[in-house]
Amino acid sequence: MRLFKLAIVFTLMLAVLLAAAGCPAPEEETSTPVTAAQDKPAPPAEVDDNVPAPKLVSEEAGEINISGGTAHIPVMEEAQKVFAVMYPNVKISIAGGGSGVGIKQVGEGLVQIGNSGRAPTEEEITTHGLVEFKWAIDGVAAVVHPDNPVSDLTKEQLIKVFAGEITNWSELGGADKGINVYTRDEESGTRKVFVELGLDDGSFVDTANVVVSNGAMKSAIAQDPDGIGYVSVGHIDETVKGLALDGVAPSLENVKSGAFGISRGLYSLTKGEPEGIVKAFLDFLYTDEGKQIITDKGFIPAG
Amino acid sequence: MQPRSEQAAERILLVCAVLSSLITAAILVFMLIMGLPLLAGGRIFTLAISAWEPGRELFGIYPMLLGTLAVAPLALIIALPVSLGTAALIGVAQPRGAVLFVRRFVQLMTGIPTVVYGFVGVFLLVPLIRGMAGRGTGMCVLTAALLLALLVAPTMILFFGEAFQSVPRAYLLAVDAIGADRWQKFCHVILPNAWRGVLGGIVMATGRAFGDTMIALMVAGNAARVPQSVYDPVRTLTSHIALIKAADYNSLEFKSIFACGLALYLVASVLVVLIRRIGRHEAAR
After folding, report:
1. Do A200 and A122 contact (CB within 8 A), yes or no?
2. For residue A26, what are the CA distances in angstroms to A86, A105, A224, B74, B124?
3. Cβ within 8 Å, pair B16-A223
4. Percent of chain A with pLDDT over 70
5. How far does the CA of residue A257 sit from the closest CA of chain B (Å)?
6. Which of A216, B146, B167, B218 has the fewest CB atoms within 10 Å distance of its CB?
7. B60 — phi, psi (to 5°)?
8. Which ranges of A45-95 does DSSP label H, i.e. alpha helix?
């Protein structure tokens, strides 16, 4: 009889396994733990009491899966909280993975919204029939540990540091310590933008450490007194110090005015024109409330 | 005559066993088919010995292959003596007080997800290793190996412990009777008799050490370059797969993932076979 019970347990386990195998979006499962480790996990759809009650509560139900750019995540999470009040029956899940992942997954229909921290290429748009929504402008800045005395680099210095030609902080007016270079994985839109506009298509030294999200970059630099990396300007806070480039600080004003050279759009992409709840969610980013969230999270609302 | 329910149960279990082995085989077949373009042209060998520089159209997995071969065996070498010692304590000493606590604790440790080790490692171990090395980021071969050792040790300890306990009691009493000390008892009676179980534990640990992704991804630094010392950053085959998962399906980058998968499958299989070989040889002696 014990054997019989065992058999039932095994069968159930196998059934669960097969059900999981049949589940779509395996990519999402592999990318979720990465973001869950470094970024905050998506909070449950709850709202603070002080958020004014919206006029309209929609009965519409459904699911919106979002993945891709990790710079977008703070805005997406906040927008999700407010959106959940207006659409209590809509379930939104937010994953990272990087811009490349976002573009690929939305193109293949694995998610409804793919986020990208760079403009999708012509080829990406035409192969998958993507429609782009640019809802914010963001900068990308080199960051160091807050205790690092260096606070300003010329573009030439920046290129040489990331290429491994300048290897000691003393060459830049800092302590006599080796420079630890951090970079992002090749799916990162932040990386593409930084290489193109920050490093003038320069390359990274092959000993550079690779981290997988803006959040992970922030915690790596916050931990390493001799480190240098780069993050979305919206992610700069007291734990890391943004470096001025040729004397121009990476502030919101300088990104907005164009004085700070490394800026980019934050995009959300859909496969074909969005409809229903997906359209409602994207439209929300362009409302006054949505723009306020974008500003609060350190970006400049676009459009 | 067996009761009918027993027969039914046996059949259900058989189906389960066949299904799970079929799934394992299907994965290998899938990888072979996806990697076929690489295998056919003999390109897999070129991939296995060239560098990873996508900017220069080089998609080799050599640095990652060496990375895995540096991190996983080092982890096993660190974990093996510790595990043998702990298992000896649990399996040979009387199960009470501290020993019982250690055993419970080890059982608990087998269930800790690797991402937790990785996360704790980033904040505790990485700064420590950075201070020790006096250079670099602290994200390196040694950090990953130490954390991996922590991951695989509980598996080995439990396997070893079981094996030690299965040594016939009569043997133990006999050794005690002829006046052997504990060390002699362990080395000359328990270890040779528990050899199979010890081997099983090592095989399991090898699989875990080679297959784990999160720890290396989070604390090894991920530089796609052959490490020159234990303080150099390293990218393993598994973290490489995790890092380039998103490349276009038709690109060489994406195909190199299958080369990674195949290499991982091969390396792990060869090692397991090797360990079993050595084990059989030792047992025969």
Report:
1. no
2. 30, 10, 34, 32, 32
3. no
4. 81
5. 33
6. B167
7. -70, 160
8. 73-86
Residue B233 · residue B221 · CB < 8 Å: yes
| CATH of region B63-284 | 1.10.3720.10
Q: How far apart are CA A253 and CA A231, in angstroms?
A: 17
Spell out which residues of chain A touch residue B245, defining contact as CB-CB under 8 Å. Answer: 27, 30-31, 97, 101, 187
Q: Which helix (H) or strand (E) holds A265?
A: strand A263-271
A27·B137 Cβ contact <8 A? no
SS3 at position A288 = helix
Q: Which two tokens stand for residue B246?
A: 């998103």
Instruction: Tell me the shortest Cα–Cα distance from A293 to chain B, in angstroms.
Output: 29
Separation between Cα atoms, residue B283 and residue A212, nearest integer Å = 47
In a domain, A11, yes or no: no
Closest-CA distance, B20 to chain A, in angstroms, reads 8
Q: Are residues A214 and A285 in the same domain?
A: no
pLDDT tens-place string over residues B147-198: 999 999 999 999 998 888 888 889 888 988 998 888 888 888 888 888 888 9
Do A176 and A117 belong to one domain?
A: no
Closest CA to A112 of A67, A61, A59: A67
Instruction: For residue B127, list chain A residues with Cβ-Cβ distance below 8 A.
Output: 223
Nearest by CB to B225, from A11, A37, A206: name it: A206
